[in-house]
Amino acid sequence: METIIPSFADKVFHFGAYGVLTGVWFYTFNYRYNMSRIKALLIISTACIAFGIIIEVLQKELTNTRYFDWYDILANVGGVLLATYLVLFFKKSDVK
């Protein structure tokens, strides 16, 4: 018997995936390349949001099995914003 995954589970995945994506890229830019915290956040947040929108558009234009979904974009942006907030809230010096 197949289990049916609720439609909101997909949005939770989008939210979490884009939050992790933002966090990993922030770590890379800020710590590995010594970029300032604000500059890294601006670049990464903008890039992750743009990436999410582009992927949704490409799904609509290039496939017959996937579709464009505004709620996916909202979940992606939510994940990016939460990760951005967490990075700002937990300063580098707070972690020991």
TrEMBL record:
<protein>
    <submittedName>
        <fullName>Teicoplanin resistance protein VanZ</fullName>
    </submittedName>
</protein>
<keyword id="KW-0472">Membrane</keyword>
<feature type="transmembrane region" description="Helical">
    <location>
        <begin position="41"/>
        <end position="58"/>
    </location>
</feature>
<feature type="transmembrane region" description="Helical">
    <location>
        <begin position="12"/>
        <end position="29"/>
    </location>
</feature>
<dbReference type="Pfam" id="PF04892">
    <property type="entry name" value="VanZ"/>
</dbReference>
<feature type="transmembrane region" description="Helical">
    <location>
        <begin position="70"/>
        <end position="90"/>
    </location>
</feature>
<dbReference type="InterPro" id="IPR006976">
    <property type="entry name" value="VanZ-like"/>
</dbReference>
<keyword id="KW-0812">Transmembrane</keyword>
<keyword id="KW-1133">Transmembrane helix</keyword>
<feature type="domain" description="VanZ-like">
    <location>
        <begin position="9"/>
        <end position="90"/>
    </location>
</feature>
